[in-house]
Amino acid sequence: MTAVLTKRKSTTKRTATTKKKRAKKSASSKANEKAKVYASLVVQLMSLLKGEHDFIANAANFSALLFNSLPNVNWAGFYFLHGDELVLGPFQGNPACVRIPMGKGVCGVAAQQLETIIVPNVHEFPGHIACDVASNAEIVVPLFDGERLLGVLDLDSPTIGRFDDQDAEGLNELVTVFVGHEQGLGR
Ligand code: SME
Fold this sequence. Notes:
It is a single chain. With 187 residues, this protein is of the alpha+beta class. It is 48% helix and 22% strand. The chain has a six-stranded antiparallel β-sheet with strand order 3-2-1-6-5-4, sandwiched between helices. Strand 5 (137-145) and strand 6 (148-157) form a beta hairpin. Helix 1 (2-49) runs antiparallel to helix 2 (55-69) and helix 1 packs parallel to helix 4. Bound molecules: methionine sulfoxide (SME). Methionine sulfoxide (SME) is lined by residues 75, 96-97, 100, 105-108, 128-129, 131, 135, 138, 154, 156.
């Protein structure tokens, strides 16, 4: 009897350890997959920008690249700073609100705080501006020309918790490539 119990216990322990190992492996392979996607996006963005210096055309292609390459994204685009408000720029997705005052919504807060904001659940973000009812998660990345704020890159997802630090890192790298390409164009 004791032997049977001992055996059962160790089988349960082994199963739990195996499950943990599998979960860890799956998380790390997902992270590797994401890293590969962002590395590939950097190459594709550079190729799209090569030889072209029309800011609007490049921003439009950049948003299309993100929208069509990243899974579970229902809106990807820009808001640019005009005076003290953000104004809708090139994007992919449903029509969106055109003007966002500084400090309002996720975009306005990211622009005011000059930092990337990841919102796992937009319904829990005070003051979130709902442009698309399908959106449940959001990430907003500010764009800088040196110290100067140019605007923000905004991505929405229908999946709660869709964006993480890896997305923030990947998108910041892409935005740096984009702005670096546009620098010195007199904007
Ligand atoms: N949700 C954003 C508004 C822009 S749309 O998502 C495209 C916000 O709260 O700032």
